[in-house]
Amino acid sequence: MHWLTLTFLCALALQVVAQIWLAHRQISYVTAHRDAVPAPFAGVVSGSDHARAATYTAARQRLGVVETVIGASLLLWLTLGGGIDLLGSWVNGLGLTALPTGVLHVLAVFAVLAAAGLPLRALRTFRLEQRFGFNRTTVRTFILDLLKGWALAAVLGSALLALILWIMASVGARWWLIAWVTWVAVSFILTLAWPRFIAPLFNRFSQLEDASLRQRIEALLARCGFAAERVFVVDGSRRSSHGNAYFTGLGRSKRVVFFDTLLSTLTHGQVEAVLAHELAHFKLGHVPQRLLVGALLSLVGFALLAWLAQQPWFYAALGVSRATDATALLLFVLVSPVFTWLAAPLALAWSRHHEHEADAFAAQHSSARDLADALVRLYRDNASTLTPDPVYSAFHDSHPPPAARVARLLSLGPASAANPVTAR
């Protein structure tokens, strides 16, 4: 057995076992704390709400375990099981030239992955989310979302794939550098285009109609020296009762977006505090930092891909008999996460640090108490566990643990951490 084959199998087994173990820890920890509401939340989150969040968390983890096992099985079939070769033979039989053959080969593999994941996606939407009262997606909306998503992936994915594969075949030894520049440029263009042209394909965006709240938001933006195109409300309630808020776009295309579900549950002060937190990610340079790190990591990835694509053992050890640019790209994209997931705690720790910084910024420019109240309401309404397992959290959570986060926020404002958050 080739060393890469053995390493791949061991790494995949480690990943699967670790994810199942982490899920078991999360279920056990949350269940053990289901009957005791943490002190900072006692004024808002009832015992029944807390227990419901524990049940919801455990159900999501069990479904996640199934997804992990199915995903690993599919990966084994595609690689060592000959799935990539099988799909490649089918595409080659169409008699097309090299470039469209490569594009279709990659698309065929991801079409299989999408089709295999469809039952679990439907189960999550219509069974799990429905069971806990979150789902508002109709079968028609679900199908339309799928069709639009697949069509968008086919159009944009085909164009980008064709460009990358052409560069790999035509530019020469330094193709990986040109491909990286292309990747970064396309990612930048899509980030600019997303709010105006892509997101509206899936949701309706309307201007915020509440004049009082709009004035308050505009005052906050001016106070922080931040320019956004407009403040929008998105019809998130069409699909789910979960609430959220976010910034999207770059430059002049930046938009502030609130879910309608969030606006229906928070006070104006709480909405302002949530916005101040989101605004902080731009003002403190978090967004460009993440973009820069992402670009540098992708540069390393393209350089590594260029080297691996020249090694015959890379293909043979992973179950591919025919070395092509398309199979090199497929193997790298599918297999590399098996080796990189152990870096997740570092990336997530960095993200949690950014969240703490954004909370501190929000406390300076709005109300720490309002943000704490808003977070508690969101935790409650979204049935988010207030007591995540610390080890699980290190591998999965991009935000700080709820109790520590709220206590820290209250220490930044007039109220002390000893005072519970109140329902307002």
Summarize the structure.
Helix content is 69%, strand content 4%. The chain has 424 residues and is mainly alpha-helical.
Which term fits the overall shape?
A: globular
| Uncertain spans | 415-420
Give the distance, in angstroms, between the N- and C-terminal Cα atoms: 64 Å
Largest sheet: 4 strands, mixed
Helix % is 55-70%
In the sheet with the most strands, the strands line up as 1-2-4-3
Radius of gyration: 24 Å
Question: How are the elements arranged and paired?
Answer:
Elements: H1 3-32, H2 47-78, H3 83-92, H4 98-131, H5 139-170, H6 175-198, E1 205-207, H7 211-223, E2 231-234, E3 245-248, E4 255-259, H8 260-263, H9 268-283, H10 286-308, H11 312-316, H12 325-340, H13 344-365, H14 368-381, H15 390-396, H16 402-412
Parallel strand pairs: 2-4
Antiparallel strand pairs: 1-2, 3-4
What can you see in these coordinates?
The chain has 424 residues and is mainly α. It contains 16 helices and 4 strands. The chain has helices spanning 3-32, 47-78, 83-92, 98-131, 139-170, 175-198, 211-223, 260-263, 268-283, 286-308, 312-316, 325-340, 344-365, 368-381, 390-396, 402-412, and strands spanning 205-207, 231-234, 245-248, 255-259. A 4-stranded mixed sheet has the order 1-2-4-3.
Based on the model shown, name its key terms.
424 residues; 16 helices; mainly alpha; globular; four-stranded mixed beta sheet
